[in-house]
Amino acid sequence: MKLKLHIWRQKHAQDKGKMVTYEVDGIIEDMSFLEMLDVLNEKLIVNGEEPVAFDHDCREGICGACSLTINGIPHGFEKETTICQLHMRHFKDGDTIYIEPWRARAFPVIKDLVVDRAAFDRIMQAGGFVSAHTGGVPDANATPISKIDADKAMDYAACIGCGACVAACKNASAMLFVAAKVSQYAYLPQGQPERKKRVLNMVAQMDAEGFGGCTNQYECEAVCPKGISVAAIALMNRDFLKASLTDAS
Amino acid sequence: MTLDSKIPSGPIAEKWDKHRFEMKLINPANKRKYSVIVVGTGLAGASAAASLAELGYEVTAFCYNDSARRAHSIAAQGGINAAKNYPNDGDSIYRLFYDTVKGGDFRAREANVYRLAQVSNNIIDQCVAQGVPFAREYGGYLDNRSFGGAQVSRTFYARGQTGQQLLLGAYSALMRQTGLGNVKLYCRHEMMEVVLVDGHARGVVMRDMVTGKIASYAADAVILATGGYANVFFLSTNAIACNVTAAYRAYKKGAGFANPCYTQIHPTCIPVSGDHQSKLTLMSESLRNDGRIWVPKAKADKRNPNDIPEEERDYYLERKYPSFGNLSPRDISSRSAKEACDDGRGVGQSGYGVNLDFRDAINRLGKHVIEERYGNLFQMYERITGEDPYSVPMRIYPAAHYTMGGLWVDYNLMSNVPGLHVLGEANFSDHGANRLGASALMQGLADGYFVIPYTIGHYLASYKKEKVTTDHPEFRKAEEEVRGRIGSLLSLNGSRTVASIHRELGNIMWEYCGMGRNETGLKKALELIPALREEFWQNAKVVGDGESLNNALERAGRVADFLEFSELMCHDALARNESCGGHFREEYQTEDGEALRNDEEYAHVAAWEFTGVGSKPNLHKEPLVFENVKLQTRSYK
What we know:
CATH topology of the largest domain in chain A: Fumarate Reductase Iron-sulfur Protein, Chain B, domain 2
CATH topology of the domain at 267-401 in chain B: Flavocytochrome C3, Chain A, domain 1
Strand content of chain A: 5-15%
Oligomer: heterodimer
Helix content of chain B: 25-40%
CATH architecture of the domain at 267-401 in chain B: Alpha-Beta Complex
Strand order of the largest sheet of chain B: 5-2-1-9-17
CATH superfamily of the domain at 267-401 in chain B: Succinate dehydrogenase/fumarate reductase flavoprotein, catalytic domain
Helix content of chain A: 25-40%
Number of helices of chain B: 16
CATH architecture of the largest domain in chain A: Orthogonal Bundle
CATH superfamily of the largest domain in chain A: Alpha-helical ferredoxin
Structural class of chain A: alpha+beta
CATH class of the largest domain in chain A: Mainly Alpha
Largest interface: A-B, 81 and 83 residues
Number of strands of chain B: 21
Largest sheet of chain B: 5 strands, parallel
Distance between the termini of chain A: 61 Å
Number of strands of chain A: 7
């Protein structure tokens, strides 16, 4: 099939950037979306033009690197699917596709479709962990955890840190990302000792990075490639309030 | 090159304890005076960086992704082995050790493998303490499943995302140490060169992938945890940017490269669909617990698989290997699939595929059970192929997946270059000629959490060195070399893209140094590769500049190294005149097509020494001595 692509091109962080139109031909339905972009880039290179820069790595939906907004929707229209796993059989000959980077103040563009998501790492550094020094821990079966709680924790732990939630949110809020981590540990006994400190510190860092607040429109949940529920945000808000009132440290 | 394995004396069960006691220590207050560089933040790198920082060392870590959490360990699906024996089914440290040595076709170092089995249990404890949400039973205790090459259930898992959860555990520990200021972490940085001063590894030259800046970093020791080289095949299950560059640079600086021909072709991947393909996707081996592998008995049978009656199906693994059946080890399963397809009985459009059928399991257990166990994998399959595996069998075919070979290391995980330590898939140490499923995660974390924190202290305490800064001439020299190489890559202005050359290299390697190898083919590859390398330097095209983010330049650098490294793989495969594990030399097989080892001549590690681009490397041998396990023909029948 033949497609018309409008792609965001931006040379570097300071460049203003603009949409540029390209045409690709010979796209077949078994290709992934990124393989379609590979076809374009190969063509650009042969013509001596710079290929379109985009983040990607595992191409199997788990590393969280790929980060494209397709026709206004982060990761595209296929539910619970990263853009690397979206295949071209969902498009038809002659389609026009708009491809943009994540848009958020806390995710500045580095080049073309590549953004800087280091803010997520800094939020994790503020509290996204259990302080368990290597060694000196009890036997893994010493603390039984109900299957229900373990499954809940796993639901939230499935976050791949791609940032689609931020890109989809009109407030560029990172609440779903932060809440997923807070909730994972909240469901596990290992997370309890630092529960209050964790939520306070992670939220403080999230605010410091310039992410907005949540106004309950659930765009984040709708685009999350791992289907993380906004119930996490409710849990985090509750924990945050409780911790704000009772944390002694 | 001297290969001193430094295996401690004494009975195998006591070696590690004894060694830990005999190694020198650095007192807690002095550790901060020592600096360590860690390249790579996958399971091995992240766990090492975090653990060393916790001990008090000054750690600098690098990764090429935008976040340490994206290393390719994250894609491991099935699980992690440990000898906990929670299911009470007869497992033990010795059994895990034995299975791993046997699974590796008796080409691994016994002492290393035993230690791996010993610390496996600590890993599970550590991960649970970090909040890794392993699968549990209703009683609240940890659940296990079985994996290929074992008759006990010793695999711990977190749905089909075990690698992700373990990596996020190690990453969270790394983030904690980074936040505390104990680790300096540089993302989007790629290693260009390892720097030796007076024969010791004292630093690295890195390229900042955003600004293009070349900078040196000095330390008292260097750790490479940079993964494997399966992308030499172009199509593999590895992430797109996985590469051999760091390991290969170390090799060019004098580190021995061990057993490069041992590559694992994973039996359960989604088949190639066309020339456009950029990577192959693995379907976890855990699927083989419930899925049955078969091909039609008749050649070129193009009927819908569901219309083929039971008596016309060949469940070839169950037929050939009744005791392990569909859970036969990876090398054996892959080769059997190839045989069936070469025999004209493959399925799918290309004929290079076999069925992985869940019909019987769904009838036995109900769809919901299969959904709970493998839901995300089924979904992934459907996304890629557009077919529903609940109603038609999955089609799978082997694909390059993991590389058992890697930089040679001693018992302390140090290469023959003093100070240069190598962890995880990047080293050669524990899997012999074939890795068992769910053992890569175990090895990466064993190396990072429980081996290197001890052994690096011993190294640092044993060699009291002068402090070196990046002003040292060796750093200047290395930086100049790097700038020169980047300059040559940027000046390439031919007519072919780097990707097309990489694809061609992959075809050569898959054809001649893939699942089956023979002397004629390998010799052919050794002619084709230098010619292709020449083509690269004459006719490749690299656009853009060196001062900004330039994916084309990054890729060109990696492919340039693959174009040299691939030759090394072929030399190794040619020199090993036997079949073992992932190395199947067609000349050496039994009458019924099984691998034929030659223990008299080849029970050794082949470590290669660089002698110049295009010239045959020198072979050094580390004999493998088996004191505990009796060498025997591996049988899964």
